[in-house]
């Protein structure tokens, strides 16, 4: 196994990070500093040290996590709760695969397998990600066609890749007030303000910053609730409560690795 792959799978960091650690001379193999990420090593035989601490190979783990709103996708933060605060010590050494915004809920994957993350996150893979949203505004046929064919998120930026849009419900806020819990709308004076509202599923195959919110904004909608419900064909387990996680099954792992763009 390559040295950089070994370190990544041992939970030291992502492949790109551990390559830098190796080049900086922080890794020793059998008592000698190695600066070659591609060095072949024998698991269980060669002694690997990172920053003078022995690195032992860990079994690969894969988790599905139902991210709550209000926590950030980061290892640590001085002001906010992070996604790692929901994991037990048994999950040490894992890292998140991609990220979700602070106020976005839903499906987030974790692993200690750097190769798995690379296969899912590399821009050339175009893995589909599906989000459920509630937004202020409405979507007519022209708007839906724009989303499906691609929109400009800002001036001098290329079109987004083709997407899929499926409308779930649309009407006025009062029609759905009891059905949806949206913190940003809780104190709205509905006697004087009853905006149009629409919900649906948007499937994208790229990961620009705040992409779903920006795409819907481009067609006149303001997102007030967002939840990722699927990555490829893998759907969020509805039995997982907010903040809970579980191991992926072998079939689910294979499903992710076999996914292709629509």
TrEMBL record:
Family matches, as PROSITE patterns: PSI_RSU (PS01149), S4 (PS50889)
- Asked whether the keyword Isomerase is assigned, the reply is yes
**Keywords for the protein's UniProt record, in alphabetical order:** Isomerase, RNA-binding
Q: Which residues form the RNA-binding S4 domain?
A: 1-60
Q: What class of enzyme is it?
A: isomerase
CDD domains tied to this protein:
S4
Is RNA-binding tagged as a keyword? Answer: yes
Q: Which EC number(s) does the record attach to this protein?
A: 5.4.99.-
Q: Which InterPro entries match?
A: PsdUridine_s_RsuA/RluB/E/F_cat, PsdUridine_synth_cat_dom_sf, PsdUridine_synth_RsuA/RluA, PsdUridine_synth_RsuA/RluB/E/F, PsdUridine_synth_RsuA/RluB_CS, RsuA_PseudoU_synthase, S4_RNA-bd, S4_RNA-bd_sf
A molecular function (GO) held by this record is:
16S rRNA pseudouridine(516) synthase activity
Regarding protein family, the annotation reads: Belongs to the pseudouridine synthase RsuA family.
Q: How is this protein named in the record?
A: Pseudouridine synthase
Source species: Sarcina ventriculi (Clostridium ventriculi)
């Amino acid at each position: 196994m390559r040295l950089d792959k070994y370190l990544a799978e041992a939970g030291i960091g992502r492949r790109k990070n551990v390559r830098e650690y190796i080049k900086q001379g922080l890794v020793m193999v059998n008592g000698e500093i190695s600066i070659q990420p591609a060095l072949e090593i024998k698991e269980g035989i060669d002694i690997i040290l990172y920053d003078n601490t022995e690195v032992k190979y860990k079994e690969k783990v894969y988790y599905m996590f139902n991210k709550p709103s209000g926590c950030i996708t980061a290892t640590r933060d001085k002001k906010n709760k992070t996604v790692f605060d929901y994991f037990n010590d048994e999950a040490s050494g894992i890292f998140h695969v991609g990220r979700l915004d602070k106020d976005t809920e839903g499906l987030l994957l974790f692993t200690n397998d750097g190769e798995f993350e690379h296969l899912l996150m590399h821009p050339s893979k175009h893995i589909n990600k599906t989000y459920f949203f509630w937004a202020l505004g409405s979507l007519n046929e022209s708007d839906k066609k724009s989303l499906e064919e691609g929109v400009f998120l800002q001036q001098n930026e290329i079109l987004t890749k083709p997407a899929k849009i499926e409308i779930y419900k649309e009407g006025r806020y009062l029609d759905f007030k009891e059905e949806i819990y949206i913190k940003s709308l809780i104190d709205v004076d509905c006697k004087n303000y009853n905006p149009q509202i629409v919900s649906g599923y948007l499937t994208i195959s790229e990961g620009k910053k705040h992409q779903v919110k920006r795409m819907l904004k481009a067609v006149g909608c303001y997102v007030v609730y967002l939840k990722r419900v699927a990555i490829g064909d893998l759907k969020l387990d509805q039995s997982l409560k907010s903040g809970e996680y579980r191991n992926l099954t072998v079939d689910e792992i294979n499903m992710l690795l076999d996914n292709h763009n629509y």
